[in-house]
């Protein structure tokens, strides 16, 4: 059974990502839980999204905040019980909200029973569930680097063999060459699909196939030997046929350092692999010389060029996820906007510029109210293993000053997005009755969900409009994409075109006004404004008609719709 229209609800959908640890604590633990999520389902329903993507809630030692799974069949007691999860499924379904679960099958926790059996025992039936190699010249088998810093191999001293960990040493990579591993993965996903889970977000799924000769990388960190690896499409087709197609599951693959050509195949319309893909190239526009751990402004022309490449490349060939924020990325209003004087305007503009593209938008908790980076000033405030590892490496080994590294972390750390959700102006932003696991951003008294709901022109209500428009205006889903001003240093202006409809999305990415001329072939006077982030543009008493020459104010956005069938 291939994907058919009844399973393609996700093409006009918007999905809300919840990072449970930071969403809502139902008590005083200081960490969020499933009951806390249930208590906020009406809020999520009001926002208007179609589904929740839930980051991992499985049993885990939480070295990487749940992406180190110790038992795929159990709920982490920190988050609640399986009964709580079943109640979440039931309550969400009653509100017409689907549930997408995060699944991590590139690696497991070293606390998983499979790995504990394999450790120290070459004869364990689970030894071949992981990737082991003998030392080379008394050291690690290759020079591959962990994504979290340091070499990607760790020694099992009793057997004098190394196991591969592309992430933390507590996250051992699974050996997908072993058919028993692939069957275990099918069994796990089937278990949750049988429960009624509507789909799966597959963590770093394009890393599951490693080149088997395990060579040193003389030009990089090893990723070219395992990214979009030799058997990855074969493996995904096998899992898809056995599970995803059987249950009609929507699937989104997180793709690390991937290419457009591979993503066209991962998300092809025949549904043989995945529904859609996450790629991160646009979020490297502020990586100076490709290095994340630098403090740098974003390259605006590069950002637009990347969007153009992916929008045109996936149109009619595949399907992408649209996003600025997630649990691994800083808050976009701090990253690309202005999180002080123009916070609301820039948050709305950034949302518009991505929601009007083709794909499925993902909204990360707090993004819909314009939450900002917390601007931490001490390393003691950080909890993220990647951030603390890089701090130690760069300060203690590379000689970077503490002040410089803290400035880098304030811009790039994953903890920027993991601060507790700001619900109201009560202590700890209403997130917990206890002490939060990570400090709440200091601006919560004036920036919170309660205030956003009450203010009719808030970022929250603007997101509601974006979510509605995707279902009402067909060209947003079906139209092709043309960047109208690829070399403009201030404006991101693109056209979406279908047979009978044209949509023009104009966005000023900076704090200065700018005048522009829309290409003459687009008859702006034939259209109407359907969205804008400045007051007055759409109100009947002062509504404007679109013109060919426009002046956009700081961080202003405007969306023009032309219906050619009228």
From TrEMBL:
<feature type="domain" description="Glycosyl hydrolase family 13 catalytic">
    <location>
        <begin position="17"/>
        <end position="418"/>
    </location>
</feature>
<dbReference type="Pfam" id="PF00128">
    <property type="entry name" value="Alpha-amylase"/>
</dbReference>
<protein>
    <recommendedName>
        <fullName>Alpha,alpha-phosphotrehalase</fullName>
        <ecNumber>3.2.1.93</ecNumber>
    </recommendedName>
</protein>
<dbReference type="InterPro" id="IPR006047">
    <property type="entry name" value="GH13_cat_dom"/>
</dbReference>
<dbReference type="InterPro" id="IPR017853">
    <property type="entry name" value="GH"/>
</dbReference>
<dbReference type="InterPro" id="IPR045857">
    <property type="entry name" value="O16G_dom_2"/>
</dbReference>
<dbReference type="InterPro" id="IPR013780">
    <property type="entry name" value="Glyco_hydro_b"/>
</dbReference>
<dbReference type="InterPro" id="IPR012769">
    <property type="entry name" value="Trehalose_TreC"/>
</dbReference>
<comment type="similarity">
    <text>Belongs to the glycosyl hydrolase 13 family.</text>
</comment>
């Amino acid at each position: 059974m291939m994907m058919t229209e009844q399973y393609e609800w996700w093409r006009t959908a918007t999905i809300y990502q919840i990072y449970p640890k930071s969403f809502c604590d139902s008590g005083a633990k200081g960490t969020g839980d499933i009951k806390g999520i249930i208590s906020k389902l009406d809020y999520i329903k009001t926002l208007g999204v179609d589904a929740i993507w839930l980051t991992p809630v499985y049993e885990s030692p939480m070295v990487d905040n749940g992406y180190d799974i110790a038992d795929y069949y159990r709920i982490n007691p920190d988050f609640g019980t399986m009964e709580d999860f079943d109640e979440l499924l039931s309550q969400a379904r009653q509100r017409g909200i689907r549930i997408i679960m995060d699944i991590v099958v590139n690696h497991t926790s070293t606390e998983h029973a499979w790995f504990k059996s394999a450790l120290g025992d070459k004869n364990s039936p689970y030894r071949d569930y992981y990737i082991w190699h003998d030392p080379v010249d008394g050291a690690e088998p290759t020079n591959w680097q962990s994504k979290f810093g340091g070499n990607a191999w760790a020694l099992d001293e009793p057997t004098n063999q190394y196991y591969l960990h592309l992430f933390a040493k507590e996250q051992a990579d699974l050996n997908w060459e072993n058919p028993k591993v692939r069957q275990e993965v099918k069994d796990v996903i089937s278990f949750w699909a049988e429960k009624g889970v509507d789909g799966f977000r597959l963590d770093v799924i394009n890393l599951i196939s490693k080149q088997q000769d395990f060579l040193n990388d003389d030009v990089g960190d090893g990723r070219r030997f395992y990214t979009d690896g030799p058997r990855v499409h074969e493996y995904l087709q096998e899992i898809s046929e056995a599970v995803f197609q059987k249950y009609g599951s929507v699937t989104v693959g997180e793709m690390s350092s991937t290419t457009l050509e591979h993503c066209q195949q991962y998300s092809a319309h025949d549904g043989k692999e995945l529904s859609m893909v996450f790629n991160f190239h646009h979020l490297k526009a502020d990586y100076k010389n490709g290095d994340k751990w630098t403090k740098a402004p974003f390259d605006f022309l590069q950002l637009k060029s990347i969007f153009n490449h992916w929008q045109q490349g996936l149109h009619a060939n595949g399907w992408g996820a649209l996003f600025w924020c997630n649990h691994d990325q800083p808050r976009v209003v701090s990253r690309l906007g202005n999180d002080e004087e123009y916070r609301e305007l820039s948050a709305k503009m950034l949302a518009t510029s991505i929601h009007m593209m083709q794909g499925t938008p993902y909204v990360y908790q707090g993004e819909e109210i314009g939450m900002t980076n917390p601007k931490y000033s001490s390393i003691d405030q950080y909890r993220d293993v990647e951030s603390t590892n890089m701090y130690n490496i760069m300060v203690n080994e590379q000689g970077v000053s503490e002040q410089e590294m803290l400035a880098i972390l304030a811009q790039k750390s994953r903890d920027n997005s993991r601060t507790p959700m700001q619900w109201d102006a009560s202590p700890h932003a209403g997130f917990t009755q206890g002490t939060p696991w990570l400090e709440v951003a200091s601006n919560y008294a004036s920036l919170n969900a309660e205030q956003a709901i009450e203010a009719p022109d808030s970022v929250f209500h603007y997101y509601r409009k974006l979510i509605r428009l995707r279902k009402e205006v067909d060209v947003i889903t079906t139209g092709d994409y043309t960047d109208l001003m690829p070399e403009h240093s201030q404006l991101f202006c693109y056209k979406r075109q279908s047979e009978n409809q044209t949509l023009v999305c104009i966005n000023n990415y900076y704090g200065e006004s700018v005048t522009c001329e829309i290409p003459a072939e687009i008859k702006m006077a034939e259209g109407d404004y359907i969205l804008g982030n400045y007051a007055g543009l759409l109100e009947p008493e002062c509504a404007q008609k679109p013109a060919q020459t426009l002046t956009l104010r700081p961080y202003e956005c405007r969306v023009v719709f032309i219906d050619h069938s009228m």
